[in-house]
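Supplementary Text 2. Reproducibility record for the structural model of the 167-residue chain.

All settings were left at their defaults, and a single model was retained for analysis rather than an ensemble. We include the record here because the model underlies the residue-level annotations in Supplementary Table 4.
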Amino acid sequence: MQQVGQHDQARQRATPGRRLGMALFGVCTALAGVTGGAGAQTASEAATPPDMAVRLACPASPSCVNSLGVGGLTPWPFTGTAAQGLAQLRATLAGFAEAGIVADDALSITAVFTTRLGFRDEVVFVIDPARQQIHFRSRSLVGHHDFGKNHSRMRAVGERFAQTAPR
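Retained model, structure tokens:
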């Protein structure tokens, strides 16, 4: 009986963004089962990360924003292939001295931004090649409040990303 009460409390603490992320994951999982068996997907659909909503979910903390509904930020559009979108993102991140890429693969980049005071924030970028969008989550690695730093940083990175778009 005690465990049921704890489960209800955890569900009530879930942020709207986390609930949206969990719902999107459920919808994606359901749609994946409806589209048919192996071989029924196009190459770009097969390349879309199935765990995007899980990877980009924010913990119940005001120091986290994402492009899935937490913080009012939207994904960034890019043109071309996923590789071209990642190249544009790498070029954008190179313009931020406080950013360091710590992980990189065909559809995602993880970077750590270090503030002047030494606080570290993790940013995960995930490419959605089918929609030509880059989704992201930015969260503080220490502390509960960030005084809006993650939100303002992601707006700045997004603006610079748009400026580096091929014309």
